[in-house]
Design brief:
The protein has 231 residues and is mainly alpha-helical. It folds into 4 domains: 40 residues, no CATH class; 50 residues; 66 residues, no CATH class; 39 residues, no CATH class. The chain is 65% helix and 6% strand. The protein contains 8 helices and 2 strands, in the order αββααααααα. It has a two-stranded antiparallel ribbon with strand order 1-2. Helix 4 packs across helix 5 and helix 6 packs across helix 7.
């Protein structure tokens, strides 16, 4: 509450100082519980103003022109989101059932590589949050076993998805790639060329194709499964 009150009415480049008690999670144990000062420097202040009904109608275009239409629009979007969540849940259950039945050994070198890649992500996240090298190594040691388990499961899922995709001829086409890149560009208010260049520079094309293939396989499993409601 004090933090929010202090920021009310703040202007660009304002400097705000708040009295505080230093929390227990700071690295310096001697400082914990001591009185201190929190300094906030405001780079840019913005005032968020809720849109009017007329502005909402304009943003939604021809689909909505009054409050009844807005309620219907929101209700339909909520129903679509709920349906999408349920379909994702079903697809996940079906894929897990297949993975449980597919028992095969993986090359140790492949599992090792994927495990280290997962631990490298952990290291990057912890380093960005200011953790010490000792804390990072301790966290990696603690998570190594679970990271290896997750890596093995992920590899099995990838191989199963690729096998089903090949058998059922669920191909990833250039049109699929272009469509996905266009949707990414729209979500990020960017251009297709900029997104395509980013994915090319960061060698993310193969990962994108795998994600598209997995969605196709998951949808195929759901549409062809014999799903029965419990009696």
């Amino acid at each position: 509450m004090a933090f929010e009150e202090a920021l009310k009415g703040a202007k660009d480049e304002a400097r705000i100082e708040l009295a505080m008690t230093i929390p227990d999670f700071v690295e310096d144990e001697d400082a914990r519980g001591q009185d201190g000062t929190c300094v906030i420097e405001v780079a840019q202040a913005m005032n968020l103003v809720p849109a009017t009904d007329e502005q909402l109608f304009e943003m939604l275009g021809d689909e909505v022109d009054d409050m009844d239409g807005l309620r219907k629009f929101v209700s339909e979007r909520l129903a679509e989101a709920a349906q999408e969540r349920e379909e994702n849940r079903i697809e996940g259950v079906l894929l897990d059932q297949i993975l449980d039945q597919c028992k095969f050994d993986l090359p140790e070198s492949m599992v090792d590589q994927q495990t280290e890649a997962r631990l490298a992500q952990v290291e990057q996240q912890l380093a960005g949050s200011g953790q010490t090298e000792e804390q990072i190594e301790a966290a990696k040691d603690e998570q190594r076993e679970s990271a290896r388990t997750d890596a093995a499961k992920g590899l099995r899922a990838l191989l199963v998805v690729e096998t089903i995709g090949e058998k059922e001829e669920l191909l990833v086409t250039n049109e699929d790639i272009d469509g996905e890149l266009s949707r990414i560009a729209e979500r990020n208010q960017s251009t297709l060329e900029e997104v395509r260049e980013y994915y090319g520079q960061n060698t993310l094309g193969q990962q994108l194709a795998i994600e598209i293939l997995e969605r196709k396989v998951r949808r195929f499993l759901r549409e062809n499964a014999d799903i029965q409601a419990p009696s």
